[in-house]
Queue: 2 jobs
Job 1
Amino acid sequence: MSRNILTIAFWEYSTRIKTKWFLISIFLLPAFFLLALVLPTMIVSTETGESAVLAIVDKSGAGVGEKISEYFHQRYKLDNGSPMYQIMVLRSGSYENTVEVAQSLLDSMVIDGYVVIPEDIFSAGKVRFYVRKSNFVLCARLEEVFDDVLIAARLEEYGIGLKEIAEITKGVELETIRITPRGEQKLSELDLFILPLVAFFILFLAIFNTSQSLMRGLIVERSSRLVEIILSSVTPGEFMTGKILGLGLLGLTQIIIYLLIGYYASSAKGLNIDFGYTIIVFAIYFVLGYLFYAAMFCTMGALFTSEYEAQHAMSIVSMLVVLPVIFSSYIVFNPDSIVTHIVSFIPIFTPFIMVLKAGMGFAPVWEVVGTSIILLIFVVLTIIIGSKVFRTAILMYGKRPTLPEILKWVGS
Amino acid sequence: MIELKGVTKRFDKVLAVDGLSFTVPDGIIFGLLGPNGAGKTTTIRMIMDIIKPDEGEILINGTGASRDLYWKVGYLPEERGLYQKVRLGEMLSYFAALKGIPKKEIKKKVDYWLERFELDNYIGRKVEELSKGNQQKVQFIISIIHDPDILILDEPFSGLDPLNQVLVKDIIKERVDLGKTIVLSTHQMEQVERLCDEICLINKGKSVLKGNLSDIKNEYGFDLLTVEYEGMEEEPEVFQTLESVEITGRKIRGRLKNGRKIRDALEELNRLGVIKYFRVEEPSLEQIFIDVVKGGV
């Protein structure tokens, strides 16, 4: 490798790693993703601490209303021990009258909502809940409590007592054990989904952070005409190679930092993570995936003189970038489906999906080898086509090249 | 030595450089002159092998472009930029390394040139903290830091204050004394008139005048006469010896007609009154250029 390439690589690496933004992005971006993953669940499951007053109009005549009220009092309590929900069961008068009473209570804001239990509740299994403001958590709880009460009542009809009911409805605790070459490994939910997802996001961040940084740097050099000085000293090929190499090292640094943090965090928590095979797979796909995207972004960077001009292209790129993230949740639940296998072989997705699958133990050697070879072919193609476009486009100013022109350079 | 042979470059339908040929011998200051948009920068970019000519050939020291060769060439582009977020010393070291200077010598060279341009206090500062004029000086340093045999400067004086213009001119002269070659490209012809040994004047991508500067002046030159009278007796409408005459008050300015002698003109002017002041000027390059372009001499 020529001295020029190393000089450029070192420059790209050293000037970027010293910036505040590198440090910030290394910690801020994962924090952001974590927040995006965790926050919605957290918001939904947070207790508001507010109590609510409900009325039940019970036409079943089987005391379902009272049972519901009893279950609510037992299950949901405020921090001070008093019930979270005040529930009154309305029975007096005709059906229409009772509903009217409940409605007027709701109108005068005495209650927050009322439930109407119809006569045929056991056969139809339908209940109406009237509210002025909807409350997701309360609805979910109502449904759950109704389920439990009705199932218990139906079972009682068959002559099954409370003790038996508890025994019948007792759930199963699932323990997952993965067979690895190193023996059996007990898996928690964390191992099953979270760790592969974390590996996925690390790869994702490392690849896109660096290749986008590469593209932006190139646009800056182009708009400030620094490329003229650089290209009167080194060849375009050396320039492109040096940049890709330098930023690749930056991405690698980022990954090593994450891995070290992950290693210490997991060993502190007493987790036993099988790093071996996954790490090898991760390394293969980082190198190939990075080269693929870096060559692509480098070429795009050469086509635009200003960041403003590049904005349209950037928006297409960001859409491209989001696709693997959208796919990731599908992959987590269907790691072995035909769609997943097909998508694994599409080069723009290969690295991310394979890392995710490898983390979950769904990446057989044949698939790793197969997808790697296809990805490698595309890497070589991207670099060959990219460097041809790069060489011609990098010094073209004044006008953006048209697609036929770009195709002509590629063919030359 | 730089040789251009029938070099042509088209951008889309615009013919930027049209069959341009000239030779820059070693050890001189060569002026590549012409108005804005004449094709100077395109020509220089082709010499630097940044863009390829569509037709023609460019040879440096008898061979075509190669990177080892370009380590012997320094280049100051017209449109300039620097890395803004990095420290001055580090950036200069980077460019020095790209120009093939051995690691051990880089620091020495950076220090020398920063001191020469009185920028040594800024070595640890970020480039963005430097004033625009100081950034211009840094760009000049980048072009010269590797002690090139050929130095190509595109509009080197624009944006520099008079003091620094003198400094740059001194450095240019210094290099010629060392036997190095300088190519100066500018549209400000009066700036370089006194600096250049040889020139090539281009317009619309074509060379309109080239060669030794004093030869050009002799060949295309006319003399510009100025007379001022104590008192003028008459104001003639036709002059036998002068053309393009301007009369303002008691002052007459005009060009000596081709083939006429200064003595003839003086005789004619003497008849018009008592002369208080008489002056003969050599034409400026700019005037010659305007003449050549407009008159197609």
Job 2
Amino acid sequence: MVEQRVEIVNPSGLHARPAAQVVEFAKTFPGRVEVLAGQRRASLKSILMLLELGLCQGTQVLLQVEGEGEEAFLQQLAGFIENLKG
Amino acid sequence: MEEIRIRGRAVSRGIAIGPARPMAGAEQAVAAAKIKKKAIPDEQQRFLQAVRHCAAWLRARIEESTGQRADILVTHLAMVEDPYLEQLVLRHIEEERDNAENALMRAVETIAGRLAALPDEVFRQRADDLYDEGRRLLRCLRQGDIAGEEMASGTGALVLARQIPPSSAALMDGETVWGLATEFGTATSHTAILARGLGIPAVVGAQGMMAGVREGDMVIIDGLRGEVVLRPGKKALQDAEDSRRHFLQQQKLLQKLAGLPAQTTDGHTVALLANIGLAGECEGALARGAEGVGLFRTEFLYMETGQPPGEERQYTAYTAAARRMQGRPLTVRTVDAGADKPLPGYVMPVEDNPALGLRGVRLSLADPQFFKIQLRAVLRTATLGNVRLMYPMVSQVEELDACDALLRECAQELQQEGLGPVAIPPQGIMIETPAAVWTAETLAKKAEFFSIGTNDLTQYILAVDRGNPNMQYLYNHCHPAVLWAISHVVQAAHAKGRRVAVCGEMAADPKAALLLVGLGVDELSMGADSILGVKQAIRGVSYKKAQALAQKALAAESATKVEALLRDEGLSHK
């Protein structure tokens, strides 16, 4: 398992379209993809779990990826989240 | 096949003409709310099938959409296919033996409740998206394969059924349902109230209709006269189209009043609010110019699933309504039930005389643990909007004291649990018993507002059972005894600086509403489709004239004389 800290930078946070995009992206990885915000954890393959975290702009989160090719995917995922628009 | 006319009761105004969609599976869906163990795999498959249907339909829509519309659909698709939702639903089916519909509703409510509680508005709005998709999934579940095609074609139809279960009624929208007719049901049934809220014509009590109708038959639902016409001939169709056009023109004229105040010609203003049973009725009410919700009947929440709703479920419903009202007053009435108005899934004592028994606030206070669930849900909503709390069937001041004490106890508990900060909303009472009328001075010291429930008040003052067909000739809210009671309540309240509302049928009758204005009532709350008609009446008279009319009515000898008075001068408009 590998992990990396990222900050939510897009202005509206991980809601609606940005959240759907992240989930769509996470689903392309066959292994486990999760996000931790404080004590709370969510699968990045579930938009509803992700929305329940209410991640707005400026929140620090920890990404965790586990499975074959985890290193490379984690890099891509972090880049994806940091480049979200809207 | 020839034309068939069936009489029924008009419960939502308007005329709908279109193809029939008979709803056959409705009763089955209610009957089998719980399933047998061996049906679990099939039920789970049924849900997964509905998910596939909806997802396929959404994908097709996404392909033909662009920009923001496509963005919204992509989010919705992710919700429909969500693994967490799926897991919750499958688990409810397996562990609770819920049918797929109920399991889905419970899962949606659980998640939407958490989303609705998030501090950030954009996240709270996602709860509405989830409800939208929950409804779409339910439609798929209910109608199997047909749903896919029907949603794809996007055309509307007239829904005909023996009766429509509340959970189905909650799924209706004006786009796919143009009109409603049922063999059973009353003017105050769930279906009727929702149809009025959505502004779709509806007729109930059209008995024998289902035997004569087939899918796709041309049908007229006349929600003005209370009639359903199956396979109308040329003349009937022409007549229906004429009266439909006339009705719509009238509505269009009335609609111009929506943004104007309910003000008499000499500048006296009355607030017009809506009575609702479901949060989904708020939009319709606002479109008709409602200045708030004067009565949120919370019993409907109990009818939806056939069991008392938990705190989260209630909280979700109240927040949804508060948010939709955008800072306008939302008056939540605590459960008004009794042996004559039973709550599904809640055991009531058997009583010889339920109208005079354990009902309204008496029932709530008899079971404080049960009552506190609702009080907690309201308290948690109170910080999100302009919420007012109202207790029904109060007959002595101690009841109000007991409610207030329980409410404060709940507030303290919420704070300790970290669910604060909690604000105590304004607490008011319904005036329905003669006891409350004649002790209004005392009650006004503690109750922050009054709302007169003229339906029950009339029954208690006149000693007439309003459900008894033999007594209909005596049941009349224009009886001078009722008017004197209202007049007394208004004076007692105004002396203490309290506002008085009326939320019974009387407020929805344009002529009677003028009497209420003349008696000094500050707010009138009614079914949303009556608001514009009442506003037109108020804008047509002077306050002076309404007051003079009220004085004459108080002095009249009988209800019949009051009605004659209203006929003669009430609406002469000058």
